[in-house]
From TrEMBL, chain B:
This is Autoinducer 2 import system permease protein LsrC. The chain crosses the membrane at residues 35-56, 63-80, 86-109, 116-134, 154-176, 204-224, 236-254, 261-282. Part of the ABC transporter complex LsrABCD involved in autoinducer 2 (AI-2) import. Probably responsible for the translocation of the substrate across the membrane. It comes from the Bacteria. It is a multi-pass membrane protein. InterPro entries: ABC_transp_permease. GO terms for molecular function: transmembrane transporter activity. It is found in: Cell membrane. The complex is composed of two ATP-binding proteins (LsrA), two transmembrane proteins (LsrC and LsrD) and a solute-binding protein (LsrB). Keywords: Cell inner membrane, Cell membrane, Membrane, Transmembrane, Transmembrane helix, Transport. One of its GO terms (cellular component) is plasma membrane.
């Protein structure tokens, strides 16, 4: 199998190498194996959640509730463990809770057809709020070492969560590029109506995507709790923004239909390496945010220049291009027919 | 008429039920102080909500309002401490808000970067700049003239409440009855058609964001002049509260429809719910969960009511 890289993935690799060299010059500690491996512990949490996020954004959806879901499932695990359930069954139940939360997102989006940004904005608050309510505002400490190893242990010198992340990347890349359902996900982002007319159960795929996002977020929540040694309701606050930034930086279009797992992986690496290296170089967090924001805006602008000034709509709905027929402006007739068909066969 | 104001009437009914129940069971709720606190809180959130309603009706989003409010508040506080007269402080806050909003607007309208990315960037960058600049210290003590705006009462209600109502009424008129107001709706319901109809869509988009910034500058003055210090975490999470109010108030999150009156009622409902939690002895830790549930219920009800749930899934259509 020959690995072909897109143009923007080559740009990202250049960006990654460039920032790596720059950071190595700014700080002595940055370019040491110990530091780089340590940086991947944080990168793995962002990177894992970014995998289903990439697929969801390709399908023209979004999941803003991932970080809240991490906190909710970690809190569920912590509370069950505190009440005497052994830590691993408690972790399994925590992951089950997160998967259920993701399924709930998917159910409301696919069956009730509430827009994903509204549903997940609401559950961002609900899941974090339930975690806060359940915890009463206090954290849970003192997990056994066997559990903490998930966040701090290594296998042959490589952090455990990094191995989980690499396995996740491989699985996601194969799924997205080598299976039929993976190709349908791109199709949903491009033209959902066409896919429905081809007899594909779009709702089931969408439901599956958000459920997977819930499962992976919950897993990342366990890793987070094991890394910091605490289950608390404000865990992973703001992670959803870092994840989405990494996915967009990686070249996935918020307008759907476009994006790769390799791009997302590069996006995650660039952002986490910038955060790690700039912190080591004692650059204030504010300046880091500005730098990362600039990189993101610059990247989005570059992609768009390359794509021939194709307009990117994020909130405003992409309207069908009007057909100019004999001086009259008509809206897409195929689209109207599709709406009619839907009405006749509910 | 019933259909047109359906959403506003539903919120009013919910508000009346909640407030009625609270005043019957909790004598403290009928307190003039409680009512005036609720109205004052609703005033500044409502003023930010006016801007957010316009932005969302135009088919965009602005999640940087909380950070902009903090910047305005801190600069205003610093100016006041340096001895600037109060009218200059107010002007500075308005100008600063307008400037930041115009920056958002220029990036979105003329460089055509998606608004969620631009305002996400300004949200983090401005908040980061504040922490860097203040190092987490509060701006205090403030001169005695600082609290003039927030503590003056007219007919028993604080001045911010009156300013807020004026702003809501003015915005409702502009959006419903002026050309520029109708252009905002046209842009939000179909950008292509709006452009073909000769509307300068980039200019409208720019001004909607600039105005949203200006209103944040005004809201800052209504909010912080009630307290004798300015905190660095001022406005944290405000964007979420305001977007919730706008959505609960019946504005279509994808643009094209919505009213300022609905948003103001949404703000009132959220504010009353917040204080209801305190009165009913429910821990404030549940506040966020309840707000989230509000959005979900409001939007789902709306979608089922209007039959829009037959449309394809996704978020950008």
């Amino acid at each position: 199998m020959r690995i072909r890289l897109l143009w923007r993935e080559r740009v990202l690799i250049g960006l990654l190498v460039g920032s790596g060299v720059l950071l190595a010059l700014l700080s002595d500690v940055f370019f040491t194996p110990a530091n780089l491996l340590r940086a991947t512990r944080y990168a793995a949490e962002i990177g894992l959640v970014a995998l289903p996020m990439t697929m969801i954004i390709i399908s023209r959806g979004i999941d803003l509730s991932v970080a809240s879901n991490m906190a909710l499932s970690a809190m569920t695990m912590g509370l069950l463990w505190q009440r005497g359930i052994p830590v691993w069954p408690a972790a399994a139940l925590g992951i089950a809770a997160g998967t259920l939360a993701g399924w709930l997102n998917g159910w409301v989006i696919a069956r009730v057809r509430v827009p994903a940004i509204v549903v997940t904005l609401a559950t961002l608050a609900v899941y974090r709020g339930v975690a806060t309510g359940l915890s009463g505002g206090t954290g849970i400490l003192g997990f056994p070492d066997s559990f903490l190893a998930l966040g701090a242990g290594t296998v042959a010198g490589v952090p455990i969560q990094t191995i989980i992340w690499i396995a996740g990347i491989a699985a996601a890349a194969v799924f997205l590029t080598r299976t039929a359902v993976g190709r349908y996900i791109y199709g949903i982002g491009h033209n959902e109506t066409a896919l429905r007319f081809s007899g594909i159960d779009v709702d089931r795929i969408v439901l599956g995507l958000y459920t997977a996002s819930g499962f992976v977020s919950a897993l990342a929540g366990m890793i987070y709790a094991a890394r910091v040694g605490t289950a608390k309701s404000n865990a992973a606050a703001g992670y959803e923004l870092t994840v989405i930034t990494a996915v967009v930086l990686g070249g996935t279009s918020l307008a759907g239909g476009e994006g790769t797992i390799v791009g997302t992986m590069l996006g995650v690496l660039i952002i986490t390496i910038l955060q790690n290296g700039l912190t080591l170089a004692r650059v204030p967090a504010a300046v880091q945010d500005v730098l990362i924001g600039t990189v993101l805006v610059g990247a989005v602008l570059t992609y768009r220049e390359r794509a021939g000034r194709k307009e990117v709509f994020v909130i405003a709905p992409p309207q069908p291009e009007p057909h100019h027929a004999g001086g009259r402006v008509l809206t897409d007739p195929g689209n109207d027919l599709a709406v009619g068909e839907e009405r006749r066969n509910p | 008429m019933m259909m047109k104001w359906g959403r506003e009437l539903t919120i009013l009914a919910a508000l009346a039920l909640l407030a009625g129940y609270l005043s019957l069971t909790q004598p403290n709720f009928r307190d003039a102080f409680t009512l005036s606190t609720i109205l004052t809180n609703a005033a500044y959130v409502g003023v930010v909500g006016i801007g957010m309603t316009m932005v969302i009706v135009a088919g965009q989003i602005d999640i940087s309002v909380g950070s902009m409010l903090a910047v305005c508040a801190l600069i205003a506080g610093t100016l006041a401490r340096a001895g600037a007269p109060m009218f200059l402080v107010v002007l500075a806050s308005l100008a600063l808000g307008l400037g930041m909003g115009a920056l958002n607007g220029a990036l979105i309208a003329y460089l055509r970067i998606p608004s969620i990315i631009v305002t996400l960037a300004t949200l983090t960058a401005l908040r980061g700049a504040i922490v860097w600049w203040t190092k987490g210290y509060w701006v205090m003590p403030l001169p005695p003239g600082w609290k003039f705006l927030g503590t003056t009462h007219i007919l028993g209600l604080p001045l911010p409440v009156w300013i807020g109502w004026t702003a809501v009424l003015a915005a409702a008129y502009v959006l419903a009855h002026t050309i520029i107001g109708r252009e905002v709706y046209a842009l939000g319901s179909n950008p292509q058609a709006a452009r073909l109809a000769g509307i300068d869509t980039a200019r409208v988009t720019f001004w909607v964001f600039a105005l949203s910034g200006l209103l944040v500058g005004l809201a800052t003055m209504l909010h912080v002049t009630r307290f004798s210090m300015v905190q660095t975490q001022e406005g944290l999470g405000l964007e979420f509260l305001v977007i919730t109010a706008v959505v609960v108030g019946g504005t279509n999150i994808f643009g094209g429809s919505g009213t300022v009156a609905g948003t103001y009622l949404g703000v009132l409902l959220l504010t009353v719910t917040s204080s209801a939690l305190t009165f009913l002895g429910i821990s404030a830790t549940w506040d966020q969960a309840i707000r989230g549930a509000f959005i979900l219920v409001a939007v789902t009800a709306d979608i089922v009511r209007t039959g829009r749930w037959r449309q394809p899934v996704g978020w950008a259509r």
